[in-house]
Amino acid sequence: SYELTQPPSVSVSPGQTARITCSGDALPKQYAYWYQQKPGQAPVLVIYKDSERPSGIPERFSGSSSGTTVTLTISGVQAEDEADYYCQSADSSGGRVFGGGTKLTVL
Amino acid sequence: EVQLVESGGGLVQPGGSLRLSCAASGFTVSSNYMSWVRQAPGKGLEWVSVIYSGGSTYYADSVKGRFTISRDNSKNTLYLQMNSLRAEDTAVYYCARDGVVVGVAEYFQHWGQGTLVTVSS
Hints:
- The complex is a heterodimer of chains A (107) and B (121).
- With 107 residues, chain A is mostly beta strands.
- Helix content of chain A is 0%, strand content 45%.
- Chain A contains no helices and nine strands.
- Chain A has strands spanning 9-12, 18-23, 32-37, 44-47, 61-66, 69-74, 83-90, 96-98, 102-106.
- In chain A, strands 1, 3, 4, 7, 8 and 9 form a six-stranded mixed β-sheet that branches.
- Chain B has 121 residues and is mainly beta.
- Helix content of chain B is 0%, strand content 56%.
- In chain B, strand 9 and strand 10 form a beta hairpin.
- Chain B starts with a strand and ends with a strand.
- Chain A binds chain B through residues 1, 31, 33, 35, 37, 41-45, 48-49, 54, 86, 88-90, 93-101, and chain B through 35, 44-47, 50, 56, 58, 60-61, 94, 99, 101, 104-109, 111-114.
């Protein structure tokens, strides 16, 4: 198994752009996925296969990949986007790995 | 509409056992890859186990040999049998319908609301 590293927190003002990074040695070979989790709720998939957006997820959510780092970008952040965000990838032995999570604060 | 409803959580003593259930609707459990994911209080997410549509199972090292994932096709329900429970198994347990990429269960497409398991004397 390997590790995915995220910053513990990111802060942004409403209307600005938030970028949350996730680093891992296997990311050039494995897809990354992103989940949003609000307090007391189950996680919700917001990005799959590095940059694809599930139906129902606002267009302001986007994903990108470069080498060992993937990035979740939220453009025009809204107060409702305040949440914990987790990146996730698959490992080579059939399991899944999560990053430690990033708390997004909307100032 | 896909729905997943977990049940079976509760308070159990260290060394005890518990079986979690996840009733699915809107799709067929046996035709999908299904996982359990847990989250300790105030902590991050941890993948626990997966069962493939063909029946293959995989476990996180932290639960291997103690937990067993299974399903009942007639009830369209996923289970997690947890034995030899430890304090560090205390968590909210979520069941999830997996997303598949080229035949490999890679991510978690749909989640249940979770059930809390507390291991304490």
